[in-house]
Structure formats: structure tokens, C-alpha cells
Amino acid sequence: MPELPEVESLAAFLRAHATGHTVARADAASFSVLKTFDPPLTSLAGQAISGVGRHGKFLDISTDQGLHLIIHLARAGWLRWREDLPSTPPKPGKSPLAFRLALDDGSGFDLTEQGTHKRLAVYLVGDPADVPGVATLGPDPLAADFTADTLASLLSGRKMQIKGVLRDQRIIAGIGNAYSDEVLHAAKMSPFKIAASLTTDEVAVLFDAIKATLTEAVERSEGLAAADLKGEKKSGLRVHGRAGQACPVCGDTIREVSFADSALQYCPTCQTNGRPLADRRLSRLLK
Ligand SMILES: [Zn+2]
Predict the structure, then answer these.
(1) What are the pLDDT digits (tens) for 139-162?
(2) What is the pTM of this model?
(3) Do β-strands 108-113 and 77-82 pair in parallel, antiparallel, or remain unpaired?
(4) Cα dist from 219 to 57, 95, 227, whole Å
(5) CA separation for the pair 253, 211 (Å, rounded)
(6) CA dihedral 45, 47, 52, 53 (to 10 degrees)
(7) I need a surface site. Which of 24, 163, 263, 278 has the fewest CB within 10 A?
(8) What is the b/e burial string over 43-57, where b = at least 16 CB atoms within 10 angstroms of the residue's CB?
(9) Which residues surround ligand 1, an ion (CB under 5 A)?
(10) How far, in Å, from the CA of 95 to the mean position of ligand 1?
């Protein structure tokens, strides 16, 4: 799933390639992808793209007439930029194509989504806060005013495991399953540590890990074409998705805890004093 660094890079890519161009047409290729009906998608035609931003994992393409096309790529969605977009509108069907935006010079992008769970979402709104997932977002961890004190106040009194806190978009915007694994590995912290139990020093370490991990990931993907970002994310990850491989810091074997619909990866030596965490799925079976 694209998280803050990938969405930030996609926003930068679109800013460089789409800003100043006029929308020729926008088409939804599936009935479920467009979550709003007023204003209609046809109203985008003829409007110039004036900026591209990001709210957490949401892309925000704004127009000179005050509309915002908000995109959430969800777990299996992606944006593919094309210099020569087919001139025919997409046909609804079984292809992974979910949405197409065509610009006046023949370029534009396709939104695609693999798999059977269709979660990719597009919204056309006058105000980004009209999108429920945007309105409830917590603070952005790369914002200049996100300080160690901000993090301390977000964690204070929260009887949740730190892994869940980092992933919760209503608490901190933009970090998902992959970068929460990476942040906790960088902070040498157990994913199951209770947020409220962190000392001031631990909050400071976690804060530095959040800023460094996300900043480095954004810098790695800067300037890459939209098509290359997915591969860059995978190659830059140290523990996430690498169960069974050697930890790049200490050489221990990276382990995994599986849940119903996801899994986390961590290094026992770096993060849990060498002790493997209980695998929830397995321990439930053994009970
Ligand atoms: Zn390690």
C-alpha cells in the first residue's frame, strides 16, 4: 500500500507534470470508485490544475475553479502516468483500470487496482474536509510543527500498542503497516509496547525515527517516475516484508507476527531483547 512517502512523491511528480494543464476529461471505469456525485465528474473538464498536495495518504489535485479531486489508492491501488493516454474513455469491466484523467496535451494518468477487493476511492469535492477520511486525519508527521512534544501528547494516556497507534490515521496521518514496522525497527522498540508507557527519552527516540525514516523514504523516491516508486519502496525497506532474511543492522533473522488480514515484521535482537513475540494467529490455534 502506498504510504506517506510514496504519496508525497506521487504528488511531487504530478505537480511537475500536470500543473498548468487543463483537464480534457475524467472517467470512472467502475461504479464503486467514485464516492461523490455532486459536483459531477464532467464538471472537471475545462478546469486547469492549479496544484497537487497530500493529506496523509490522500492525494489532492486542485483546480483553478476551486475543485479538489481527492484520491485514496488503498491497499492495491496505483497511479500510472502516461504521456500518451488512449483517447477513448475506459470501459467498465474486469480490467484493473479504475479511473482515468486525461489532460489537454494528451497526457494523463490511470488509476489501477489489482485484486478483487475494490477499495480505491476518488472524491470530487469543493473542500478536502468534505472527505470523511481527510476530515478525521491526525497531524502530519513531516509537518514543521510536528515536534517531539506533539508526539508525546498523542501518546500520553493511550493504552494501545505502539504499532497500532502509528498506523491509526486519526492519531498520526500517513504511516501504514510498512513504515510503522520500519519506524519501530529504527527506534529499536517492540511493536507491542504500550504507547502510554513510553518515557520522555523513548518518545524522543521514536520521534527521531519517524522523521528520519519518512524523510529518507521521500528523498529516495524523489524524481523517480511514478512507475518506479513501488519498486523503490520495496528495496528501501529494512524489515517490512523481509521475514526470514537477515536484519541489516545486527544480522539476526527478521521475524513475523501474523494477524487476520496483515502481518508485522520485526528484529528480535534490535527490538525485543532477543525474545520472539507470540504469533497471535498461532497462539489462538494452540489454545
Ligand atoms: Zn536487528
Answers:
(1) 999 999 999 999 999 999 999 999
(2) 0.92
(3) antiparallel
(4) 17, 33, 16
(5) 26
(6) -90
(7) 278
(8) ebeebebeebbbbbb
(9) 247, 249-250, 252, 267, 269-270
(10) 41
